[in-house]
From TrEMBL, chain A:
<dbReference type="InterPro" id="IPR003959">
    <property type="entry name" value="ATPase_AAA_core"/>
</dbReference>
<feature type="domain" description="AAA+ ATPase">
    <location>
        <begin position="79"/>
        <end position="218"/>
    </location>
</feature>
<dbReference type="Pfam" id="PF17866">
    <property type="entry name" value="AAA_lid_6"/>
</dbReference>
<protein>
    <submittedName>
        <fullName>Rubisco expression protein CbbX</fullName>
    </submittedName>
</protein>
<keyword id="KW-0067">ATP-binding</keyword>
<dbReference type="GO" id="GO:0005524">
    <property type="term" value="F:ATP binding"/>
</dbReference>
<dbReference type="InterPro" id="IPR050773">
    <property type="entry name" value="CbxX/CfxQ_RuBisCO_ESX"/>
</dbReference>
<dbReference type="InterPro" id="IPR003593">
    <property type="entry name" value="AAA+_ATPase"/>
</dbReference>
<comment type="similarity">
    <text>Belongs to the CbxX/CfxQ family.</text>
</comment>
Automatic annotation (TrEMBL), chain B:
<dbReference type="InterPro" id="IPR000894">
    <property type="entry name" value="RuBisCO_ssu_dom"/>
</dbReference>
<dbReference type="GO" id="GO:0019253">
    <property type="term" value="P:reductive pentose-phosphate cycle"/>
</dbReference>
<dbReference type="InterPro" id="IPR024681">
    <property type="entry name" value="RuBisCO_ssu"/>
</dbReference>
<comment type="subunit">
    <text>Heterohexadecamer of 8 large and 8 small subunits.</text>
</comment>
<comment type="similarity">
    <text>Belongs to the RuBisCO small chain family.</text>
</comment>
<dbReference type="Pfam" id="PF00101">
    <property type="entry name" value="RuBisCO_small"/>
</dbReference>
<dbReference type="GO" id="GO:0016984">
    <property type="term" value="F:ribulose-bisphosphate carboxylase activity"/>
</dbReference>
<comment type="function">
    <text>RuBisCO catalyzes two reactions: the carboxylation of D-ribulose 1,5-bisphosphate, the primary event in carbon dioxide fixation, as well as the oxidative fragmentation of the pentose substrate. Both reactions occur simultaneously and in competition at the same active site. Although the small subunit is not catalytic it is essential for maximal activity.</text>
</comment>
<feature type="domain" description="Ribulose bisphosphate carboxylase small subunit">
    <location>
        <begin position="4"/>
        <end position="103"/>
    </location>
</feature>
Length: 319, 139
């Protein structure tokens, strides 16, 4: 409990500059930092998203070099790490943000590496004087970690000039600028609306260093994602069911409110519901282990999506 | 007279970095950190006013330091202390408390003697600061 007056040696410029000038083995540093493990996990757990992974690799490389520079007493001030993630719903923004938090943590750019995920409701108050304490409360919780603001553009409501969102934005900007070593902010949302948000709030644009765009998943990727989801829950698709799901995905994509992986998850949840009902109705014979695990084609084909797709096709034919 | 209350009170005032590390120690132990302030320095005054709520779910000392900076801005001429509450069963009490801000001039305490019952004397201490009404004691 004694007070610590000494600072860690790496941060004192005098000692750092004299701490060995030999060449650095970048590969070994990379291995030791533990990022490679985080990146591998990212590769395993998230399908596709090649441009995103590429950018994260680049950022990780930048951070590693920055860290090495710091040990040699070369870095001037902490790098700006605030990011913006743009992409359609269900493209893995939150999941990647969580990974980002652990990458930043393993490199020592945030001290704790936890992720605090908020939306407008958590930041903006309902009456005068309510917003600042609310925003600060969230910031306090996120200190030492990553603050993830989902659908950040809702903070700014141009149609209402007395909207309290502006106040939250100002506090956020201040902390993003002054406490860069304490907190990393990630803004997320649909690409077009984020663009508009950044043009109306130039303060944000200039403080966000990394813009990462999340592409939509292809049909094949979504099918694989679906299979991984089911595998995690100890379910299995029969071959016919797999074919049915492969037909389901493009049909679902054609309809409104398509949310990539999230839509697939919901579809599979409903398929599980139908499977349970099917098992219940065929009560003439005992249920085997395979019955409990397998999802059959009818479980998926019963989806309304197919009806609507057929209707749409029908209309086209008639018209 | 320099007020000595709580942990570290006989050491020179802690720097902000030292405070931050102590706070991080408290957080790492799972204690809820509080910021309190008062302008009544009497040692028996246990009821200091709280700056905001206890910080139960703060993970990093930077969050507490942000509040402390705010509190110092508003109550620069008062005593401010940080305390940490341990909610573990069996403890359920403060584990640490230390002063992090004090007024520039600390006038100290008066020892009052009250003569009672013939030659008996009762002693009591009274802070000079409390001669003046609350709010204008350290102006």
């Amino acid at each position: 409990m004694a007070d610590h007056t000494d600072t860690p040696g790496a941060q004192a410029p005098g000692t750092a500059a004299s701490a060995g000038h030999g060449p650095i083995d970048l590969r070994a540093e990379f291995r030791d930092s533990g990022i490679s493990r985080v990146l591998e996990e990212l590769d395993e757990e998230l399908l596709g998203l090649r441009p995103v992974k590429q950018r994260i690799r680049e950022i990780a490389a930048l951070l590693l070099v920055e860290k090495l520079r710091r040990t040699r007493g070369l870095a001037a001030e902490p790098p700006t790490l605030h990011m913006s993630f743009t992409g359609n719903p269900g493209t893995g923004k939150t999941t990647v943000a969580m990974r980002m938090a652990s990458i930043l943590h393993s490199l020592g750019f945030v001290r704790k590496g936890h992720l605090v995920s908020v939306t407008r409701d958590d930041l903006v108050g309902q009456y005068i004087g309510h917003t600042a304490p609310k925003t600060k409360e969230v910031l306090k919780k996120a200190m030492g970690g990553v603050l993830f603001i989902d659908e950040a553009y809702y903070l700014y409501r141009p149609e209402n000039e007395r909207d309290y969102g502006q106040e939250a934005i100002e506090i956020l900007l201040q902390v993003m600028e002054n406490q860069r070593e304490d907190l990393v902010v990630i803004l997320a949302g649909y690409a077009d609306r984020m663009d508009r948000f950044f043009t109306t709030n130039p303060g944000f644009r200039s403080r966000v260093a990394h813009h990462i765009d999340f592409p939509d998943y292809s049909d094949e990727e979504l099918l694989q994602i679906g299979e991984i989801m089911l595998k995690k829950q100890n379910y299995r698709l029969t071959d016919e069911a797999r074919a049915a799901l492969a037909r389901y995905i493009p049909a679902r994509r054609g309809q409104s409110h398509f949310a990539n992986a999230r839509s697939i998850r919901n579809a599979l949840d409903r398929a599980r519901l139908r499977q349970a009902n099917r098992l219940f109705e065929q009560s003439d014979r005992p249920v085997s282990d395979a019955d409990l695990v397998e999802i059959h084609a009818p479980d998926i084909l019963a989806s309304r999506v197919f009806d609507q797709a057929r209707e749409a096709d029908g209309e086209v034919d008639h018209g | 007279m320099r007020l000595t209350q709580g942990t570290f009170s006989f050491l020179p005032d802690l720097t902000d970095d030292q405070i931050r590390r102590q706070v991080q120690y408290c957080i790492d132990n799972g204690w809820a950190v509080n910021i309190e302030f008062t302008d009544d320095p009497h040692p028996r005054n246990t009821y200091w006013e709280m700056w905001g709520l206890p910080m139960f779910d703060v993970r990093d000392a930077a969050g507490v330091m942000m509040e402390l900076t705010e509190c110092r801005k508003v109550h620069s001429g008062k005593y401010v202390r940080i305390s940490a509450f341990d909610s573990t069963h069996g403890w359920e009490s403060l584990r640490i408390s230390f002063i992090v801000n004090r007024p520039e001039n600390e006038p100290g305490f008066m020892l009052e003697r009250q003569e009672i019952d013939g030659r008996q004397i009762r002693y009591t201490t009274r802070a000079y600061a409390t001669d003046r009404p609350a709010g204008s004691r350290y102006d």
